[in-house]
Amino acid sequence: MQTIGHFINGELIVDDSPTQPVYNPSTGEVSKQVAIGGAKTIDDAVAAAKAAFPDWRKTPPLKRARIMFKFKELLERHADEICRLIGEEHGKIVHDAAGELQRGIENVEYACGAPELLKGEHSRNVGPDIDSWSEFHPLGVVAGITPFNFPVMVPLWMFPMAIVCGNTFVLKPSERDPSASLYIAQLLKEAGLPDGVLNVVNGGKDAVDAILTHKDIQAVSFVGSTPIAEYIYKTAAANGKRCQALGGAKNHAIVMPDADLDNVVNSLLGAAFGSSGERCMALSVAVAVGDEIADKMIAALKNAMQQLKIGVHSDKANDFGPVITHEHKQKVLGHIKSASEQGASVLVDGSRTMPAGYENGFFVGATLIDNVTKEMSSYQAEIFGPVLQVMRVQTMDEAMRLINEHEYGNGTCIYTRDGEAARYFTDNIQVGMVGVNIPLPVPVAYQSFGGWKRSLFGDLFMYGPDGVRFFTRRKTITQRWPSASVREAQQFSMPTLN
Ligand code: NAD
What we know:
The protein has 16 helices and 23 strands. The chain starts with a strand and ends in an 18-residue tail after the last strand. It has helices at residues 39-58, 61-77, 79-90, 94-111, 114-117, 153-164, 179-190, 205-213, 226-238, 261-273, 291-305, 326-341, 377-380, 396-405, 419-428, 464-470, and strands at 3-4, 6-8, 11-13, 19-24, 29-35, 121-127, 130-138, 141-145, 168-172, 198-200, 217-223, 242-246, 251-255, 283-289, 345-348, 367-370, 387-393, 408-409, 411-415, 433-436, 452-453, 456-457, 472-480. Helix 9 links the parallel strand 11 and strand 12. The chain has 2 domains: 3-247 and 455-477, Aldehyde Dehydrogenase, Chain A, domain 1 (3-Layer(aba) Sandwich), CATH 3.40.605.10; 251-436, Aldehyde Dehydrogenase, Chain A, domain 2, CATH 3.40.309. Helix content is 39%, strand content 23%. The strands form 6 sheets. The chain has a 7-stranded mixed beta sheet, with helices on both faces. A 6-stranded mixed beta sheet has the order 10-9-8-11-12-22, sandwiched between helices. The relative contact order is 0.14. Residues 145-150, 154, 172, 174-175, 204-205, 208, 223-225, 228, 246-249, 280, 382, 384, 410, 451, 455 line the site of nicotinamide-adenine-dinucleotide.
């Protein structure tokens, strides 16, 4: 059986790390083994990255960008292979994997603008014969730790930007679907990236802890669940590292009485059940304002849900696939059960859904639960499965209060035809990414991505302009070239222009 190793200093390496199984979630079978690196492997990767840094830092941004241009071409040329690897280990359907890859490629395209992005800020004549400017310098060796649910897109949120900014990088992908990130790292080498600039170490907590405490790592970018994000942020900060740690979510859609119901139902289906609900921007709660719209929405959803197709990743007729592991499936089923036990109405129960021929796969069918209240544990937790919960309220303020009081603040959306209501919503909602009649308001690559409250620990969002700031540090230079005849007087007060 194939063992997925590490990628260090431009070489694929299978060292003496212990291994653990990687599953094909559609069949439930172990398909590969993955090496679980620890402190020693991280040390090797950091040493390679540190050695590559002095030359890479001096490589002109235009040359770095040209490698990214070539990388983009290679990602496009090998899209089918990348989507196959994602599908086999994550389970998402080939059209969804293609969407993930495309959103990742857009981050590479943005990184191609490095010469423009790194131009700095110049002020001429801040004083007599004095000019001042800010430059954006790389940090050194930086690291990224990524989740299972976007095995290509989330690494592409991080390393292209870090690398074009002149840093060298150690990526620790999810051990549950490690192949795709290892594959794209090799494409970047093929695009011309010098050895050691990007390294990939597979592993789990030991590798993460080695990153967090490594003296030669300057910054850590993390995406994953909230408890781990909080741990990463605190530990990285305690070890003197810059850190951004993006966490979990509970994304609500407010459905106003005037909403266009056909659009609501169509977009809720994809946003709640697409990728089996394993997206940090999945809409998992629909808050209906008034019973009339709630009843109509539920009737239409129940009807439409009968047509959903669930199955293996390679069949593009399927709408969504399995969840990631058997354990995760049990967790999702536990939330459905607890909702029922705590008084909610499970209207469509996907607990027993199983596509023919894939009886051992980790499938959960689309599930619809009505009469959910904020006391229920299935409402408080992030389910991360194909489960849409409906809450009924009487006013828009009541709906907004639910969202604002929730622990998470990643994404949200309002469905309405009323511009005043939409503006009130966008002004007052305590969430980082907000949609108006847009179910998945995932910012484009030239904006930045992040949540509020316990969905993000740190100050800067991911990718886009915030990504440039995260992966660089400012140096401000103030320079005077006085003409030979000018003699400066002694000055003991704080220099001013007065
Ligand atoms: P996870 O937190 O279990 O794992 C994320 C990473 O942390 C992995 O690389 C994993 O190896 C590592 N890790 C796991 N346990 C650890 C521990 N105890 N100590 C140190 N490191 C540990 O997350 P996941 O299940 O892979 O991904 C799903 C979660 O990620 C969901 O909560 C989802 O909302 C979140 N997510 C958030 C965003 C966002 O942008 N906010 C995007 C994607 C996913």
